[in-house]
Amino acid sequence: MSSSYPRSILTPHRPLPLDIPAGVAPTEFFNSPCNLRHLTRENGLLRSDEGFLLYRKAIGHSNLFDTSIIFDTSSKVLDPMGRPVRRDQLSREESLTFSRMTNVVFQYMLERYPDPKEHLVFCGEASLDATWPINKPGVPSIRMIHNHFMVFEQALLAKSAPASKDDPNLTDGGQNGLFLSYLSEVYLRFFDVLDLKVLRPVSSDACKLILTGYPQGLPSWEVVGGAEQLAKGQFWKEYDMVLRGFLEFYHTFFTLVASGDTKIPATAVYADQIEDILLYSDQFHQAARILRLQIIEDPMIANEIRWQPAYKQLLYRDDAGRLIVTISQNSVGNAITELLGIVVQRVADESAYAQIEERLVTQLLELRTRLVTYGLGEAIATPSWPSGSFVPPQKQH
């Protein structure tokens, strides 16, 4: 058997210290202002003036290093479907703060885990479809723009069991047959014409992780100049160009699926590419027709469609130590780890989590100090770090 295959790992966590009210779907509760307040009180690390919240993941993916930044608008915007879910919905000031915070966290991970042979370092930003029913199974737990930062031990991945290739979350490994069979080539060509200077197109095969063989079939770019580019505006400008390209590809395809409309929006940034590469592609139209017929005939497929753009955009360090950017459509329940071929099974195990909690929290508090020093927020006290130091749960009372 090849040593390159998707991996399945178990990650323990402490049971959630709150009950979901009877009659409320979990995703409805998790997106409520009540839950977001609880998240801040129990796991909040830092909040910026704009409302960006750095927090410890209560149910994380990695217990080596795992944290997230969310744009917490839960009290300001009570309608969960009215909250910002993509970077292009942020103001210039909000986007600048979000990019700076991302850079600081990523640089911290690279400093703590400098060897790509020892650790996989990455972050992933995901958007949620604002038109998707809030209580639909598989909706990620918090409907706001967020970035998730993780580190995994290569040794842990190497000894982990294979994940099923039919796992519904491994959508970029061939399960999205329609996309890979009909759209992959035109998708890659569409991105290939972007005018980029810091991001250099690289074959997806050339930046696959050796242990997992992922990501698969996605447009990918190497960050020319490495980590120091993340502290420069040009990188984030081009990072946004990749996102804008994805959004316009998505809009064009699903508009064609929905109504057959081939009009190009007046606001399109890549209008020429939309016409030349997409709308003149027979494969593009064929894929739209196939999906359209499936939606008409199959209510299950119709219920799964995300008509508005939903994406995952990753920045990761590959086996050669290069920083790689990639982007994918976001599918039901699909976490950013699965884009790299890692399926995480999270289990409640308080004793196992207690063995790693202090080391994890200590790193997060170190990171918080750095963010405060750079003027990127103010510290938050919680029962687990009331005065900036970790306090084990049994010593809180």
In brief:
The protein has 397 residues and is of the alpha+beta class. Helices cover 37% and strands 18% of the residues.
How would you describe the overall organization of this protein?
The protein has 397 residues and is of the alpha+beta class. The protein has one domain (7-395). The protein contains 11 helices and 13 strands. The protein has helices spanning 26-30, 33-43, 92-112, 154-159, 177-192, 233-259, 271-279, 282-297, 299-304, 336-339, 350-373, and strands spanning 7-13, 44-47, 52-56, 65-71, 119-126, 146-153, 161-162, 199-202, 220-223, 311-317, 323-329, 342-348, 378-379. The strands form 2 sheets. Strands 8-9-11-10-5-6-4-3-2-13 form a 10-stranded antiparallel beta sheet. The protein has a 3-stranded mixed beta sheet with strand order 7-1-12. It is globular. It starts with 6 loop residues before the first strand and ends in an 18-residue tail after the last strand. The mean pLDDT is 88.
